[in-house]
């Protein structure tokens, strides 16, 4: 458990012989220079090392309950986290917490005062876990009181300070020298240029207009704009969009289509004719067919997502009061799975739009920082096999979420604002659904998704601890010196500013062992689906040109022609729409695919593009992510396959032992005799 409402944990089904993935917990960064604990027992518990700057506040021996067998260990409270460390490995859990003492129950929140010595403590986690620790008798109760109060006080003191912990830990982790990030962090124009060439986006260039964040602090320093659009035109055009988040390239399909994203039109602005021309040329991106997607149509609001997540968490906690026979109906009542279904359905529709014709598809959301990133990421996962690789998926999240300015800290409740909504966690659930439906298509495993899910609450990097690239760069000291304007290929970046010295969430080897990282890989991944075997970028023959000068609005599952692209009055669109193009309703992803690849006839027939996934989202096709949401209920985890061969062998041995224990031992001569069930059960004990 990490302080500040941002906690790390991992999926667990504890087994003493060989802990499952995450039971050992992330390994700690070594070399903190922390003084040795006074207790030999505590010292052995912290043998793996402490985080830089970590100080132990209190500890108490205890037994973790709710497991079979119960695990003895030590409950430790530090200034950064609460850890239960059994028998040589460490476990991290989450707040807030409730208290059980004798026959009394007391709910504690930051600033509360404990009025009795507890015999048991229950720590409820935002990561859907419940840590239940019973304290030993025989004079150790004062330690139980001390560690409990230390947890409450540390939680209160770190509610604000936690957001600055990441930079401290990250700088300490870099004391040994510069560390190359495992994936490009997209903090330099070179990173963006390499990614542009990788995608084959020849009609686009890297713009440096926002290099000093004077266009928008929520945008990255660099982004892609059409080749023929000047930076001065970009600056003016972006001023006519909400939060100055104008249209820019999100992803270039190898067949020729472009996926763009932007904020909502700032209708109070008064653009001139030249500004409208620039806006429409950026939307068009060299294509004759433009589809403007109303992102929020048929998707939940931020408030809906937050309410659904709170209901889901309350339902999945081990102490939920919902009766077992009403649990499934209560799950439907949370609406969480409905929202997952809506996101997958819309992403499927958009992937059809992108892959069926050579066109420009523009995702438009008022803020451009939440569901635009979710849909753009899902579309790339459905359409591009390279996005389903381990490195490709990490690069996707870095580009569409971190660099694009998703407000992680606000959405995950780190600022105390009322705009909390776990949109990124909703996205990870959607990805898990795709992984379950097409396991051979993904190189990464469910345990990688769990690690990423829990990493949003780890305060040792700045990746998820800030709302904007500007805040992240400012806190890291990236902008302490003057940044010279340079263009890739013509001048070198200024010395000392080309690489962000901070650690990122992708530095898995600093928090996880090699054995754990190996479990990030999907054993069922089919190498035949690797990017090298996909459609060559030089042969986009499966796509056909769209109709001339056509502008469409995709909303409520239908394509409707637009008379003008921009909403400003007395400013007619420069892109005329022919009256012969009529609305074409689409009530499902399949029907939309039929229309896109079958109509109109003069566009020609087109086969399903290689590598495209069309997910199922009807009824039982959308499932509950049990390893994530029911991790606090070990009994529910039984029956879920282990991630490794050794884990499967251990599960098989366990099942065989149970089968041997509960199967009656019947001699051959007894087979012909009618046995008394009571006799059988008595012999099996």
From TrEMBL:
Residues 1-38, 666-685 are annotated as: Disordered. It comes from the Eukaryota. This is Myotubularin-related protein 11 isoform X2. GO terms for biological process: phosphatidylinositol dephosphorylation. InterPro entries: MTMR12-like_C, Myotubularin, Myotubularin-like_Pase_dom, Prot-tyrosine_phosphatase-like. Belongs to the protein-tyrosine phosphatase family. Non-receptor class myotubularin subfamily. The lineage of its organism: Eukaryota, Metazoa, Chordata, Craniata, Vertebrata. Pfam families: 3-PAP, Myotub-related. Residues 186-629 form the Myotubularin phosphatase domain. It comes from Tursiops truncatus (Atlantic bottle-nosed dolphin). One of its GO terms (cellular component) is membrane.
